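DATA CLASS: polypeptide
GOAL: derive structure tokens

***
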Amino acid sequence: MYLAVINRAGSRRYEIRQSFPDKKRACCRYRVLFNLGSDPGRYINHPSDDICYFSSELEHTLAAQTGQDPTTRLEELLWDFLPREEQRRLERFRHRGRARVSPLSEQERTAIEKEVHLFDRRRLYYLRYGAVDQSKIFRLNVKLYRPLLNKCRDEREYYFMDMEKVLHYNELKTYVFAIFDLQRHFGESISATMPEALNQNDIADYFIEDICRLNRDPLFWSQQISGKSLHDHLIRYIIMFFDHGYGRRSLFDDFLREFMGRHRAFQWPQKKPNVSSGDAARIFDTDWQKLSQMSKKELTRLYRQRAKELHPDGGGEHEQFVALNSAYASLLVRKK
């Protein structure tokens, strides 16, 4: 389920929608589960400071259509409409569950290659790395595409809208320049780093051509091609591009951005060494009780002595030297 916001003629209304697979069209579509109207807050009952609950009409309707208790999901969807007291009470419990990132299955990898459009990849790449140059988009972790699976185009767009909230208003035009890969139209060396130095009329012309092409792309809309006018989900990019500037730049900002990009790396944490007390006593040739009572300085002194004896260059065996290092690391962890 997701919350859809529909703006029409200066008015705004809300709907709770759900994606579902359409086997005839071989794609995902959406259905409206509940029309919240212009004020979702009227479906939230707040009789006192310590009591807050959703209306039975809303809960029963969603439960009947989804077959599950919708309360927890409603707290997420209608968070902005909850009373301040309820938000403060629930804030401590939000995001407590540790996310479990499991490996992608072959089915998921196949679905990503088939379903995730290049425009979605460009948006994720910028929102993840903040890079205007899209030439290294292949470096994006494939697992980041997982939230897009089994979702219709409408739900995906609301997913991106939520992610785009973190962008600063001075960054919006640069964001549009990057996700439409407008740099490919220019041969200047600065096109990937300083779009404000390019011919702005040419950029605007290429942008209009590309967004109209995307508006007619059946692969992007999953065979649901919009009419003659620009689709509502693309209008926000028109506003981002023409109603905002590139923002001021400074040498320090450029240096900071480059520094962060060069040092943005990820490594899986190393497993903590775990050696039994008997193995540690044997490899150090010292009683375990005495070994456990040693200070860090005494343990290091003993380790260096045993390292000289067990090092392969001194006549020792490689396996014993490796076991010594593991035992030493394990003892240091225990002492911490």
